[in-house]
Amino acid sequence: MVEVTDIPGATAAPSSPSPAPTTLGELRDGGAAFRPVKAELRTNLLGRLGRGEPSLPGMVGFEDTVLPEVERAIIAGHDLVLLGERGQGKTRLIRTLVGLLDEWTPVLIGSELNEHPLHPISVWARRQIAEHGDATPVGWLHRSERFGEKLATPDTSVGDLIRDLDTIKVAEGRTLGAPETVHYGLVPRTNRGIFSVNELPDLAERIQVALLNVLEERDIQIRGYRVRLPLDLLLVASANPEDYTNRGRIITPLKDRFGAEVRTHYPLELADEIRLVHQEAHVAWADGAHDAFEHPIIPEHLVEIIARFTRLVRESSHVDQRSGVSARFAIASLETIAASAVRRAAIAGETRPVARVVDLPSVVPASRGKVEFADSGADPDDEREVEILEHLLRQATAQTFRARCAGLDLTGLQEHFTGGETVESGELVPAPALLGQLGTIPKLAELLGRLGVPEGEQSAEQAAAAVEFALEGLYLTRRLAKDTDGIRTVYGA
Predict the structure, then answer these.
(1) Which of 55, 342, 348, 446 meets the CB 3.0–4.6 Å disulfide criterion with 430?
(2) Which residues of 292-307 are buried (b: 16+ CB within 10 A; e: fewer)?
(3) Domain check: are 207 and 233 in the same one?
(4) Beta bridge partners of 108
(5) 263, 283, 316 - which closes a domain
(6) Taking a C-beta distance cutoff of 8 angstroms, is the pair 222, 176 a contact?
(7) pTM of the prediction?
(8) How many domains does the chain have?
C-alpha cells in the first residue's frame, strides 16, 4: 500500500474522526449499506460537480481537456489508461482520484482484503460472521489507505500482483490447496480501493494476462485453488505513448478491457506553466537554522523566464520530441535558482535571499540530464548541448524582458554607461555592492512596480534583482555590452 500525501482531498491526516459503530450489529442498526467503489466515486464526483467545486484539485492545465474525459470515465464506471510523455502529471492525477472516495469506510477487522462487513467475499470473512454474528468486530479505513500502486517492471510476477503460496501457513499444518494458504498480492489487497499500474507496457505480456479477469469479470481465479474472489476496485494504468506502440505493448485483450483511454499533455498556455511551477516547486526550507534563509524570494519575472525556457526546450528541434521535457525540468530549475540565492545570501551576508538573473546559468548544468537530445549518436559530454540550453535560456530571458518591460523608459539606467562606466555583477556579488556601483537609479520605483514589487515591500535585494534584470534585458536587446567569464559579469556601453 502507498500512503497518499500532499494531495488535496486525499491527505493522510483525517479531517474528521472515524464513525462510531464498532460491531456488525451497530453498523446494521445505523442503516449502513454496501456501495461499490465505482458507485462511491461516481456519487462523490457528481456531488463536487453539482457544487461547482474542482473535481480533481491541483491538476493544472487539464481543466478543459483531460479532466472532462476522466470525469466521464468515472461516471461511466470505466477503468482507464492514461497515455502521455514523462512528467505530464499522470501519477499525480491517479493519486488525486483517491480524494473522490468516502473519507471513511467500514471493514472487517483482520481482513486482508478490506472486506465490507455487509459484503464478505472470502472464506475467512464468512466464517468470522458465522461465528460472531452481530458482535463481529468492525473497524474503519481512511481513504488514504485505499490506494495501491505498482511500477511495472520486467521482473514483476503474478505473485506480486495477484497471489502466491504462503509456505509458512503450509508448514504450520494447513492443507496444500486450502484457501488459507494463499498469500494475496497487491491487487486483492487493494480491494475496495483504487489500484494503479504505472508504465503498464513494461509489464511482461504473460503477467498482463493475470489482469484480464480483474478488468472484465471483476475477480481473480487462483490456479490450483477453488477460490473465486469478486474484487471491488478501480484499476488505472499509465503508459508513455512511445512505449505503448513500440518498446513495449499492452496486449490486445487487456487494451480492450479498459473502458477509457485518456491522453495527457504538457501545459498548453504559458500561464498554466507558471501556475504549475508555483504549485509544485519546493523553495522554502523550514529547518530552523537560519530563519531569514528559509523563504527565499523568487521574483515573478524569474518564474516566467523558467516557464518560457521549459517551453522553448520542449519545442526545440534539437530535443528528442518522442521523449518530451518533463514538468520536473521547470520545477527543478526554479528550486535551483532559489538554492543559488540562498547560497549567495549565506556567503555574501545578504539579509534576505532574493533570486536574480545571475542565478539563471546554474540551471543549465543542473537540468542537462533531464533533456534527451535528438542526435543520439553525439558524445554525451558534447558542449554543444550546453550551448543549446544556454541559447534557449537567453531567448527566454529576452522574451520575458520584452513582455514585462515594453514601453518602460530605461534611458536613465542606460546613460550611466555613456562615460565608460561599468557595473560588475556575479553569483556572489551582494545586492548593496551591485546597487552601489549605479548610485541613484532614475525611475527605479517605476521599474520595481512594473516587475510586481509592492511599494511598501521594496528592499535592496529586490531592487538589485529588478535592476539586474533590466541590465540583462538591455544587453539582450543590443543596447548594452556584457562580458562574462562564468564567475564575473561586467555590463558596459
Answers:
(1) 348
(2) ebeebbbbebbbbbbb
(3) yes
(4) 138
(5) 263
(6) no
(7) 0.86
(8) 2
